Every structure is written in C-alpha cells, then in structure tokens.
C-alpha cells in the first residue's frame, strides 16, 4: 500500500473507491461497525488520495478520527482552476485559504513531510506573501522532493506595461522566499516580461529546477536598437532537464551551457531562422519544433540549427499545414547530428507537397527505427491564411544514389493516408531503400469538425479525392505496395 498518498483535484466528480457520501454513511454506523475508521492512517490516507479536494477536506468532519488526515498528506496538488467559476479575486481568496490550511501541520508536534507539492495560482500581488509563507513552512524540513509551480497572470490580455509589472512582481516573489524556492523543480509561466538578467538569476537561485516552461513570455526590448531580446541560458551548474519556449517574443534562443538538458520544445517563434543556437548541450536527445511559418521566415538547414548536438534520439517537426521551413540537405552535414537518431516525426505536411524530400532523413540517420509522417488534407483550409503567412511551395530533393540502402528502419507510420498514386509511389520508394522495414501503418486523417461541417460541392470533390480506402480496397492497396518485393512487410490500413 502506498504510504505517500496524493490529493489530485478534478473538475468532475471522481470515480473513487470511497466517495464522500459513502464515507459519511460509514461514519454514521455504530462504532463497532465502523471498520474503515479502525484502519491505520496510511491506509486512510491512501483512500483520500483517490478523492477530489472537496471530498477529502469534508472527510475531516466525519469524526475526530478523521480530523487530522487532510493535513497529513505527503503529496498535494492544489490548482486554482478547481476553484472556478468565480471572480479572480474570490478565487484567489478561497485558494489561499485552502493552501494555508492544507500546508499547516495538524499539530505543533506533527513531523509531517510534504514530499510533492504542486501549486497553480494567479500572480495576484495581495496573495503572494501568504502563498510564499505557506510554501516556506511546508519545505522547511528539507525533505521536499518536488515543488512544482504553475503561475498565471491575473489579466486575460495584458498590455506591454502590465507584462513588465508581472515580471517585476514574479521576481520580487521569488526573492522574498529564497529558502523555499531553492526546492523548486518545475516552473511554468505565462505572460511575463523578464529583465535582462532575470532568467539567469532564476536558474542560479533555483538550482534544483528541472523544467522551465515559458508561454507568451519575452524580455525587455533593447532601448538602443529596439530589437527583440535573445533568450540566453548559460547555466553550467543547472539541473535543468527540459525547456519549453512557446509563442514567446524572443528573437532567438541561445543555449550556451545547459549540460543536463535532455528535452527542448520551441514553438511559434517570431524571429528569423534558425530559432536556436546550441553550445554545450551534451545530453540533449529530444527536440520538438512547431511553427506555422510567417512570410519573413525562410527555410533553414537542420545542420545549422542543431550544430554541436550529437546525442539526438527523437526529433518532432510540425509544419501546421504551411510552408516546409526546413531545407533538405545531404548526409555529409547531418550525419554527425543524426547518427544516434531513433525516431523522427514530420507532422502536418500540406497534402500537395511532394514527399520525396523526406528521404534525406533516411540518408543521414543510419540508426533510425521509426519514421512517422502526418499529412494535412483539410478542405476547410486549416492553417495560417492571413497575409503574414509564408507561401506554400513544393520541396525539391536530389535523390540518393540508387545503391543507397537503410538497414535499421523497422516502422513507417503515415497518418492522413488516402487513395492516391503519389502516396503509393512514395511508400514503395521507402520500401525499396529501407531493406529492413518490418511494418507499415497507414491511418486516416484525424477528425476535423470544420471539414465535417462543410457540405458544398467543392469540398465533396476534395473529400472524394482524399478519401481513406474502404474495406474492399485495402487488400488491393496492400498488393499494389508489395508487388515486386520479396520481403514480407506487415501492412496495416486503418
């Protein structure tokens, strides 16, 4: 039985083994029949971890036996969203009361240790001191393994001056409780404008931080050049394992020294290409880039972007049904970077784009096992269509030498497959080059409400052109794919 229970908060009533009304029924029984209350604390706490916060707190009113239990939990996940719907001031009032109550020990002699604490809350100034003191009290034992904070700004669409204010407020919050936040392991922020040295100071003071996630964040604009700031991370002693930079206003991300970084997500950058510069990142093995390209963003080579990385094992690129913003290149430049690559995901390639260019990955990644493509074929025109969007153009690629063979690829996975001669030819090309291929998985495009709602003649023709094969056609497609090949490749359709 788990001796370190967790309270997890849910919007919907949980499907728990002992819901609140059953607890009350049990408590109303005669003492001789109340077997649940006779259980030891660690079992009762394990029961409480399966309940929502409201029910867990209600359990303390059942009897004196239950009164101390909610404040004896060693893992607490307290999210502000679960106090909605109310005005944000009322939400934060109720949230702060709950945090202080649940983090206080049940008695002065209680030696409780909170091993995992996760809080999400609004960056509302009048409540930060109370939250900070509660966190400091909860972590003062020095035995906290995980402290995760998700901090939202209390303005839906802030102006630039408000972003600056949020940055100052956040840094003041952290500086007020340095002892507490040295235990911080995960930090998720939104709508923050940082000062020039704020990120460096955060990483230096929070030396246990493993995840930093930034959404709609940026730094102060250079007053002389008026240029967007560069997010520079030079943290040779940092414990940072994962970095997420999503829809941020930085011109670029420079990772100078992040020796433990393993996972990187960069999405919707507004600067030029490439968006990243790597220095010393010897452990980096998982990179995801997602972009609906803007008209000033020109394609770049992956060898330029991923220079100095040699440990990549998984790469995810999402083009959002827009311009292909990478340039195919020969294996000479990519091989040192892709030599350890095991998985690659090329998602939301616009349907009219020729796919032969993707073969450059096979040429440069001799250890590749899984090759996954997702084609985007939306009659609704999903994707960026405004004047800022980059123009979709086909991608050309000089084919590899006829004798090129790939020996490690075992899975080809295509999402968005359709009855299309072009696709059949492409799959046969992969089969010809990947001599060790064992399985091909062909799936329909994921449902789209907008496409399903379109019923005009043009969309009907498009759907007919792009339709997924019906059951009677699947065997014929399999035969068409394997015709002339001696190897037995398992082909699943649907």
TrEMBL record:
Entry-linked Pfam families: F-box, LRR_At1g61320_AtMIF1
Bilayer-spanning residue ranges: none
Domain of life: Eukaryota
InterPro entries: F-box-like_dom_sf, F-box_dom, F-box_plant, LRR_At1g61320_AtMIF1, LRR_dom_sf
Domain F-box: 33-80
Protein name in UniProt: F-box domain-containing protein
């Amino acid at each position: 039985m788990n001796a370190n229970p967790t309270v997890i908060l849910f919007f919907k009533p949980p499907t728990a083994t002992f819901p609140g009304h059953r607890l009350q029924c049990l408590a109303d029984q005669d003492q001789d029949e109340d077997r649940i209350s006779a259980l030891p604390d660690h079992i009762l706490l394990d029961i409480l971890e399966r309940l929502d916060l409201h029910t867990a707190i209600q359990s303390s009113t059942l009897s004196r036996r239950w009164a101390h239990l909610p404040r004896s939990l060693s893992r607490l996940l307290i999210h502000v969203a679960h106090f909605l719907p109310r005005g944000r001031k009322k939400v934060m009032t109720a949230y702060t009361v709950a945090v202080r109550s649940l983090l206080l020990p049940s008695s002065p002699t209680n030696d409780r240790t909170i091993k995992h604490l996760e809080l999400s809350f609004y960056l509302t100034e009048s409540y930060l001191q109370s939250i900070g003191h509660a966190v400091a009290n909860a972590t003062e034992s020095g035995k906290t393994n995980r402290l995760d904070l998700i901090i939202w700004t209390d303005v839906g669409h802030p102006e630039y001056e408000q972003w600056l204010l949020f940055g100052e407020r956040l840094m003041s919050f952290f500086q007020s409780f340095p002892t507490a936040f040295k235990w911080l392991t995960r930090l998720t922020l939104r709508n923050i404008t940082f000062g020039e040295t704020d990120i460096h100071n955060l990483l230096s003071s929070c030396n246990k931080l493993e995840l930093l996630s930034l959404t709609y964040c940026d730094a102060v604009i250079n007053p002389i050049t008026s240029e967007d700031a560069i997010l520079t991370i030079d943290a040779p002693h940092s414990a940072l394992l994962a970095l997420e930079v999503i829809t941020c206003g930085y011109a670029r991300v420079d990772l100078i020294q992040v020796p433990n970084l393993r996972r990187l997500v960069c999405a919707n950058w507004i600067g030029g290409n490439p968006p990243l510069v790597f220095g010393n990142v010897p452990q980096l093995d998982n990179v995801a880039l997602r972009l609906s390209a803007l008209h000033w963003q020109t394609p770049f080579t992956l060898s330029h972007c991923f220079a100095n990385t040699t440990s990549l094992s998984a790469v995810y690129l999402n083009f959002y049904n827009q311009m292909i913003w990478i340039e195919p290149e020969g294996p000479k430049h990519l091989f040192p970077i892709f030599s350890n690559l095991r998985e690659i995901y090329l998602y939301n390639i616009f349907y009219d784009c020729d796919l032969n260019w993707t073969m450059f990955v096979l040429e440069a990644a001799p250890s590749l096992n899984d090759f996954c493509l997702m084609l985007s074929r939306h009659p609704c025109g999903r994707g960026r269509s405004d004047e800022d969007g980059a123009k979709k153009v086909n991608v050309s690629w000089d084919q590899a030498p006829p004798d090129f063979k790939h020996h490690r690829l075992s899975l080809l996975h295509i999402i968005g497959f359709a009855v299309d001669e072009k696709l059949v030819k492409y799959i046969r090309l992969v089969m010809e080059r990947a001599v060790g291929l064992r399985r091909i998985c062909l799936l329909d495009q994921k449902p789209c409400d907008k496409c399903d709602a379109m019923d005009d003649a043009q969309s009907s023709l498009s759907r007919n052109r792009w339709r997924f094969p019906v059951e009677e056609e699947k065997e014929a497609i399999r035969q068409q794919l394997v015709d002339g090949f001696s190897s037995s490749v398992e082909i699943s359709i649907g």
